[in-house]
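Annex B, item 7. Sequence and structure tokens for protein A, then protein B.
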Amino acid sequence: MSQLVEHAKRELTALGYDLNDKEDGPNKWIVENLFELLEVFSRQGHSGSSAPYCAKMFEKLALFEPLSPLTGDDDEWNDISDMQGGEPGWQNNRCSHVFKGADGRAYDIDGRVFREPDGCCYTSRDSRVYVTFPYTPKTEYIDVQGETV
């Protein structure tokens, strides 16, 4: 077992995961998947300088995020009009939360995320932020007051 996996065991145990869980389910799958990924990462022999670089790129790719700014070029868009009842629309194929409407304006539906005092976050129609290209996707977190009863 690599030092990285040993570190993961300590951290997952501190979070309350049962590393010997026999019940087949999401908790067991997450632990097994993490160990598998960490074993591969460890075998690759990353140094202190390459590990953060590789991990950050992997994180972005695994979350379907772009590694460089979106260009807005025609080849970045998938026609989604069939999913919108025939209404013209396109979704960016490099960043799934960027869309373009019939008017040709591009927008990021995750441009704003609203955060309540308890830390819960949500998006709404007001999350939409119009963008210009080149565009590096970013999310602004806006603290809001919770509902009063």
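Protein B:
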Amino acid sequence: MRRGNGRRSVRQNAGFSLFEMVVVICSIVILYMVAEERLNQLPAAAERANFYAVLEQMKTGVNFEMVTRLASGRGDEIRALEGSNPINFLIEAPSNYRGEMEQVTDAVEKRNSWYFETTSGELVYVVGGSSIEDVRVVTGGVPVNLGQIRLKLTNVYDQIRESSPAPGSAPRGQGTKGSGNWQALMLLPVREYSWERSPEQPIPVGGG
């Protein structure tokens, strides 16, 4: 029997080199950082979407109530709705609505919620903790992070009011002190505000 030369071709399995391991670890770290940043943005994005969804529902409810009363010849009743609770025009109140209150002292503990302040006739949204830095309210001409957005049902007229309105309190060219012809009942921001998606993509004042 003829024997072989006794040599065998043995394939050695080489492991990862140090460079390859460093590349893999760096890639994992980068992917984790990107994923973590995206996940951290989800609560704020969900809150912003919910806020504007509820806001649009209230505006629709106010418009429906206004048209209904005008159609039935009860136009004078609409003006009396100024400063009333716009939540009442919804079929169902939002799950994060706290009700009507004279004064709130625990707003910090009850973030991401609505309440109606009876003393001022204003609907208040308390911004969630993950969104405070994104929401700016103009007070004294300076945008600040107050942590609240205030809205109010307001009668709008076709003449500019005698005194200058607070920024965002009424559309330009319209008044809210009873001068001129009555135009509509609108849910308007008490103070100008903005809710920014990112520094590069701001949301217009009072809009979605």
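Comment on protein B: The radius of gyration is 29 Å.
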